[in-house]
């Protein structure tokens, strides 16, 4: 090999070593950061799966307690589920199951507390508020029940508000609410017959189907 070639190779080698001395730390740091992001992402996914699995187990504990009639155990499991990470919808579903069992057992005050603790959104919140309103009416808290459902205009909410008004002796308001609720119920629907009875008891007249809006 010619001496010129050896010098060229030596010069190229020096350039490479010089570049590495200047940029090597940054290059290594970039590799470390990249690996950290990959490993961190994998760790996060494993953590999420672990949290979800744990929430599922605690949800099962609530359901088993409810099914066995051990409501105190179910309530304790409910508290643990509420504190669990990534519990999500598990908390709302478990609370609804627990509240229903508490009502069946005649523990309305406990059911009210359970429902009040549910932090639901959208359609599920409406269901929770409707169930809570019914219990409030049973507990002679019709005004609070009416206030709770004041923002809803669906047939079920209007009917429950009518129940609240009737419970407070507000027959005019009850008739108006029952009439509005009835207008949203199809002829022949199972719930229509009871709603018609409520309207009649409030001193109202059931309109003919053709007269409904």
UniProtKB/TrEMBL annotation:
Q: Which residues form the signal peptide?
A: none
Pfam families, alphabetized: TPR_21
Residue span(s) of domain Ancillary SecYEG translocon subunit/Cell division coordinator CpoB TPR: 17-202
Q: Which InterPro entries match?
A: SecYEG/CpoB_TPR, YfgM
Membrane topology value: Single-pass membrane protein
Q: Which residues cross the membrane?
A: 25-44
Q: Which GO terms describe its cellular component?
A: plasma membrane
Query: Which keywords does the record carry?
Result: Cell membrane, Chaperone, Membrane, Transmembrane, Transmembrane helix
**What compartments host this protein?**
Cell membrane; Membrane
The UniProt GO MF terms for this protein read: protein-containing complex binding
Q: What is this protein called?
A: Ancillary SecYEG translocon subunit/Cell division coordinator CpoB TPR domain-containing protein
Whose protein is this, by species? Stenotrophomonas panacihumi
């Amino acid at each position: 090999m010619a001496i010129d070639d050896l010098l060229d190779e030596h010069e190229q080698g020096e350039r490479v070593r010089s570049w590495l001395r200047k940029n090597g730390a940054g290059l290594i740091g970039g590799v470390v950061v990249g690996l950290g992001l990959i490993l961190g992402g994998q760790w996060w996914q494993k953590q999420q799966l672990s949290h979800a699995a744990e929430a599922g187990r605690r949800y099962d504990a609530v359901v088993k307690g409810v099914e066995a009639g051990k409501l105190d155990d179910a309530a304790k499991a409910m508290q643990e589920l509420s504190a669990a990470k990534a519990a999500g919808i598990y908390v709302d579903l478990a609370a609804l199951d627990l509240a229903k069992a508490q009502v069946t057992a005649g523990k309305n005050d406990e059911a009210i507390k359970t429902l009040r603790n549910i932090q639901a959104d959208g359609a599920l919140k409406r269901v929770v508020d409707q169930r809570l309103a019914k219990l409030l009416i049973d507990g002679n808290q019709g005004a609070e029940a009416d206030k709770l459902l004041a923002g809803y205009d669906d047939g079920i909410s209007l009917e429950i508000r009518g129940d609240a008004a009737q419970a407070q002796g507000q027959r005019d308001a009850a008739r108006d609410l029952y009439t509005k609720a009835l207008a949203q119920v199809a002829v022949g629907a199972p719930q229509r017959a009871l709603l018609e009875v409520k309207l009649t008891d409030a001193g109202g007249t059931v309109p003919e189907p053709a007269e409904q809006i």
